[in-house]
């Protein structure tokens, strides 16, 4: 039967949701509030599905987000998610067709980049996505979580209620987005998703606890966490799981981690999403006990290189020429001269000899400052005119903070 590549219709919403769930190996939630929550954040006009014989055999969607880039500017991006191809229809080019449509539509909407979380890390480099953001999973025995070094914390930590946390957390989050490249904006629907806390989502752990750090009457940080209420032979064996710890200042960051390491009866503190440059490692008395497991988080695909490269700031004043090769999005291919520094940049097409030559995925990997050009050159993923060109590119693209994206989509 003929394959259609299109958006799903309004009456196909739950068929789409069912196809997505099947692709990831679960059934759609039908508990109270789940359907309404899903509908509130879904963007049906931005779906791209593959259908044949009235059945969906491929799914994808692009959410409308803003992405923070070095220098603090927020750029619109297509955040691709829900990507599945039915096991019955593999090896037919369905994923390629859907990704081509998604990236083409993002270009038409004026979105200069696309981002995604990769369920399978082998899939997306061939479509020009580069591993732009890395995270770490943490766990540490609380008895070894003693903090020896930290900035002054003149404010106070207090518990916050679910009713007040939305306003307090949103203000902190929006200030933090401007400080850390790689973060994405949250609208009301995504805040509803972040704070949604029915019992069936807790995995046997507690409901959310919230605490905030306040200084001079202003909330500077918050933590959202759960506790696994386990006792072994009448002794507590509880873990505190940090769901989200957000701090707009170093003082807030230190005070909230000290709070985590002080909760009574907890034996282990864990976190799923930490930035690779988080200073807690240097604050601990014995950092060896902090187990850190790195993994790839957000992948970035450049759609409009002139817009992206001219929208961020650079750590040093310099001028470089990049040659970008791109078969999947041929309009990206070309040579670009970047004349930039801490105040901004001008970017223009050029015929000059390139300092660095790369595929689109390489540019995506290095754009936010999370990967070094020299590392990719040495890995054989890029070519450099000279060692000096590598050094200058590394210096230019270094960001004040490592990219981080606590929002999964």
Characterise this structure:
With 409 residues, the chain is an alpha+beta fold. 26% of the residues lie in helices and 33% in strands. The chain has eleven helices and 21 strands. It has helices spanning 13-24, 34-41, 94-108, 162-177, 188-195, 250-260, 280-283, 305-311, 360-367, 373-378, 387-397; strands spanning 4-6, 49-52, 55-68, 74-85, 113-117, 130-131, 134-141, 156-159, 209-215, 218-228, 231-232, 235-236, 238-247, 266-275, 291-296, 298-302, 318-325, 334-341, 344-349, 356-359, 382-384. The strands form four sheets. The protein has a seven-stranded mixed β-sheet. The chain has a seven-stranded mixed β-sheet with strand order 8-9-10-13-14-7-15, sandwiched between helices. Helix 2 packs antiparallel against helix 5 (188-195). The longest helix has 16 residues, at 162-177. The mean pLDDT is 96.
User: Could you give the count of β-strands?
Assistant: 21
Radius of gyration: 23 Å
Strand content: 25-35%
Shape category: globular
Helix/strand-derived category reads alpha+beta
Distance between the termini: 32 Å
Number of helices: 11
Major beta sheet, strand line-up: 1-2-3-4-5-16-6
Low-confidence stretches: none
Largest sheet: 7 strands, mixed
The helical percent reads: 25-40%
- pLDDT averaged over residues: 96
